[in-house]
From TrEMBL:
Matching InterPro entries: CN_Hdrase_a/SCN_Hdrase_g_sf (IPR036648), TOMM_pelo (IPR022513)
GO molecular function: catalytic activity; transition metal ion binding
Protein name: Putative ribosomally synthesized peptide
Record-linked SUPFAM superfamilies: Nitrile hydratase alpha chain
Gene3D superfamilies from the UniProt entry: Nitrile hydratase alpha /Thiocyanate hydrolase gamma (3.90.330.10)
Domain of life, source organism: Bacteria
Length: 125
């Protein structure tokens, strides 16, 4: 399944934010303390979050296992794209990626599925 251009941009913004948080402790603490402001500033307002709150939790402690419980999807409102229908019916292909990229892609896919979108300022929908 290929991502739309908007989904690719959202993915890239989130990968950049996560990478910066891994490398810059001050950025990470700012992101934890005031995620909406930091994300808006870091993406120059291009990444829009369609919720009132954002929770950022530092999950880098090797001695702790973190479990994220996402919002339960409403199956009645769920529609599959043509690509997703192809995947379900066996017509799609998967691309292998490394474990870090795979984890980030999964986290980003969850975020995209639950309200993260791009603003009009970068050609979003």
């Amino acid at each position: 399944m290929e991502l739309s251009q908007n989904q690719q941009k959202v993915n890239q913004y989130l990968v950049d934010i996560i990478a910066k948080a891994w490398e810059d402790e001050n950025f990470k603490q700012s992101l934890i303390n005031n995620p909406m402001e930091v994300i808006t500033k870091h993406t120059k307002g291009a990444l829009k979050i369609d919720t009132e709150n954002i929770v950022v939790i530092d999950q880098t402690d090797d001695n702790t296992t973190y479990i994220n419980i996402p919002k339960k999807p409403n199956i009645d409102d769920l529609e599959l794209s043509e690509d997703q229908l192809d995947m379900v019916s066996g017509g799609g292909t998967m691309q292998a990626v490394g474990p870090v990229e795979e984890w980030i892609a999964g986290a980003i896919a969850s975020a995209v599925a639950f309200g993260v979108s791009l603003g009009e300022s970068i050609g979003g929908n």
